[in-house]
Amino acid sequence: MNAFSGFAPAIAAGRSGHGAVSMALASGRVQLVNIRQESLTLARWRVLWIALGFAFVALLALVRIAYLGASDHGARGTSLEEALLPPRGEIADRNGVPLARAFPAYALWFNPTALGEDGTPLVNEPEEVAARLKAIFPDLDESRVAAQFAAGKQGYIRRRVLPEEANRVQEIGELALEMPMENDRHYPQGSMAAHVLGYVAADGKGRVGMEQVLDKHLSDPNTRGTPVSLSIDSRVQGALEDELRRGMKLVQAQGGAGIVLDVDTGEVLALASLPEFDPNKIDARGQKLMFNRVTNQVYELGSTFKPLSVAAAIDAGVVRNLGRRWDASPVKVGRFSIKDSHSMGADLNVVEALIHSSNTVTARVADELGPERMRRTMIDLGMNERPYIELPAKGFPIWPGEKWPRLRSMTVGYGHGIAVTPLHLASAYAAMVNGGIWRPATLKKLGPGEAPKGRRVFKASTSSRMRQLLRAIAVYGTGKNADAPGYRVGGKTGSAEKPGGSAGYRKTALVSTFAAAFPMDRPRYVVIAMLDEPRGTLASSYQRTAAWNAAPIVGRLVPRIGPLIGVRPDDTRDVDITDLKPLIPEANK
Predict the structure, then answer these.
(1) Residue 251 lies in a domain
(2) Domain that holds residue 382
(3) Active site members
(4) Is the pLDDT score of 63 beyond 90?
């Protein structure tokens, strides 16, 4: 036997094992190749699907472009500037304080078809839903809203809803109560200057005030990005409204009106008509309060006209000597008789007549002036036309006409027989104290040199004399309650009966007015305060005349607004009335 023969089986067995390993390795390589091929195929499919997705999106874009190109509603390009513009321009006061702004807000809308055309509009009963809304909005008219729900009438329930209120409405769970986001007009100062601003109606158009006047400017994309600055000073406006409101309450007046006017430019720093409305909430009551007493209602403003008549007489040379004594007894013209409210003596000089507000002496002065010259002065002061101001609501005066008889001239001289707005009076007083130049009133803020030239009505010397006389009235006469220390106030009271009684006037219904200017050594502002039908109360010593109710309003207002508009109190300065004092008995006591 071969020595090596025993190893043969072992070698054979070794070869057999090596073959098995080789086969296993070959099989693994095949599996790896298959996996790689499957991954590659999957990747290719993924790439294909992505490419198809992109192609589909591109196809949609092409279809959209083709549609827009074929239709007549092409896409409108919008610039970034236009996109950032407010939907309606802002209104600000002369110092930049916002008075009217536009901002997005929720509205509450009732949609009766929210649950289907044939279904019931609400899940719960209309009365129950209305009651739950009433709990969210205390001022809501619950019965009206319940009736709207029951009738299935779509429409607004509320135009302005706060976010927290919107959340509470959502909790009610009624799909018919929808809250669309809309552009809303907001008045940050509330009801302040409401008659100046007006409001924006549901159609997006301005109504009543400067919102109506400036509607095109505020809505035009080319201009609405720039706020409109009014001449109004919100600080002065707030003080005027506050003092007017206080004065009304003290004497239980039906209404009030006031204005603060720059005598050199005609700019209106404040204009108030009370009671006011809230432009943030226009309802039936607010609609009734939109009538503007300052620019739209005409009154016989009584004795406030007397200084104007005296100024016209001085200008015409009728009054040359202020010391001349005038008959103060009743004036009889035909069957009519002009009397004073009480006896003031047998005769008075012009200074005394203004201080004590004599109808008889003023009538005699007007009589010597004559109807034609009196009428001409009133025309020059704009009393025969609607007041000059931008507001749309402007009342037309009750004007006596072309030919004035003697009696008409005399009654106009002391403020009867002609009815004008308080704004007419303010502009006239500005002309009387500013050197004699009448200028139209404006609610637009004017820059340096932009004031209109105006027209001359009185001589500069006449204006200087009237400043003395108005100051004397506030120091010694019926205007004492308006004399704010250090502010050199001058002015004239006026208390006129309202027309309508059996004798032509209602003796129990007065219009009380105080027309003033300050400081009288260099007049800068005219202030008018008027009360409609004040009553005699404890606060007015049971008197109804302007000396007791309208004059105190000015006396409280001037110290509040003076420092705000550049007039500080100064007890060392005053207009010189030395030459008038010998003519005033009260000054020599």
Answers:
(1) yes
(2) 239-587
(3) 303
(4) no
Q: How confident is the model at residue 115 (pLDDT cuts 50, 70, 90)?
A: confident
| Inter-residue contact 536 to 544 (CB < 8 Å) | yes
H helix intervals, 252-399: 284-288, 306-316, 350-356, 359-369, 371-380
Tens-place pLDDT, residues 356-402 = 999 999 999 999 999 999 999 999 999 999 999 999 999 999 999 88
For residue 190, pLDDT over 90 is answered with yes
Same domain, 147 and 265: no
In the chain, the number of structural domains is 2
Return the CATH number at 569: 3.40.710.10
**Mean pLDDT (whole number) for 568-573:** 95
Q: Residue 16: helix, strand or coil by DSSP? A: helix
Positive/negative CA dihedral, 538, 542, 544, 549: negative
Please, what is the Cα angle at 524 between 523 and 528, to 5 degrees?
A: 90
Question: First-to-last CA distance in the chain?
Answer: 173
Q: 142 and 252, same structural domain? A: no
Burial level of 520, CB count in 10 A (0-12/13-18/19+)? buried
DSSP letter at 181 equals E
Residues in the chain: 589
Of 182, 160, 178, which Cα lies nearest the Cα of 169?
178
Q: Which two tokens stand for residue 478?
A: 């019926």
Record the pTM.
Answer: 0.81
Taking Cα atoms as reference points, which of 240, 301, 289, 272 lies closest to residue 511? 301
d(CA 344, CA 167): 71
299 in the same domain as 378: yes
